[in-house]
Amino acid sequence: MNLILTVTVNPAIDKTVSADRLVFEDRSYILSSTEAAGGRGLNASRVLHAFGANTLAIAPSGGEAGEQLHAYLSSNLYPFELVPIARGIRTNLIITDKQGLTVKLNEPGPELSPEELARMEKAVCQHLDKASWLLLCGSLPPGVSSAFYCRLIRAAKKRGVKTLVDTDAEVLQDALLEGPTAITPNQHEASRLLNKGLITRQHIRSAATRLLSMGSEWVLLSLGGRGAIGARNGQIVEAVPPSVDAVCPIGAGDALNAAFVWAISRNDDFADAVRWGVAAGTASAILPGIQFASLDQTRAIYEKVELRDLR
Questions:
Q1: pLDDT tens column, 67-123
Q2: Model pTM?
Q3: Burial class (CB in 10 A: 0-12, 13-18, 19+), 266
Q4: Rounded distance, CA 241 to CA 249, Å?
Q5: What's the CATH number of domain 3-309, 3.10.20.340, 3.40.1190.20, 3.40.50.1220, 2.60.120.10?
Q6: Residue 89, Cβ neighbours under 10 Å: how many?
Q7: Residue 196 and residue 6: Cα distance in Å, rounded?
């Protein structure tokens, strides 16, 4: 399998606190507290590596939190390349309880100078000739415009590299103008992009079709615990997971992205890749804290995911 590159422009140290319950105006008790490297692309590379794929994660890093990031990534054992920056990367706080309720508080992240951003772009482009996929994941830090993602999509397309974009709002809207291979918004992100509430099943199906018309070749619309809708020219499928007790949904979308790309790189079956993506997201959501399911854990859920043709 060719190299699958992931780019995380706004990485973080994720501090996760597990509590007995999340309630207002009453006390809760902390059950555990952990720290880990955070960022959608870093998470995707972690899953890809666990599935046996050839992956490389690229991200900026600076400050004391950047030193922690390097240490955490080194312990995860998957390949990464950190681009030094002057300012410290952000720290995010995730609070989750035993009922699966989750609150995530994100810092905006550090500003990157034009020189630092140029080094990031160079770091990505020098690996494109060996890559089959480029995954552009997560938010952009303050001062970094959507043009950064747009330039990388154009550079990848010139080299015949497929692109997946997992971001939000104006950044996603601008990226669509470059015609990426795939976008993977969740229901809230799709609703914001389309400026429309997505409530019924027909709303969601129509949203997937409309997103497809905005420039991407494929759309993978994540519905959280209800699975996902996959759309491409002439094909709309729905993958419905089994009923499970989700413990922590944070990172499930990253697992979905990784498994989708991993699967379609193996057998070029779009519907089956959507099924694998939903299986990985579901299998990861039932694990405590921010953890990612192994291939065996994902395969066990995959067997129970129902695939429906919506054409």
A1: 999 999 999 889 999 999 999 999 999 998 888 788 999 999 999 999 999 999 999
A2: 0.94
A3: middle
A4: 14
A5: 3.40.1190.20
A6: 29
A7: 30
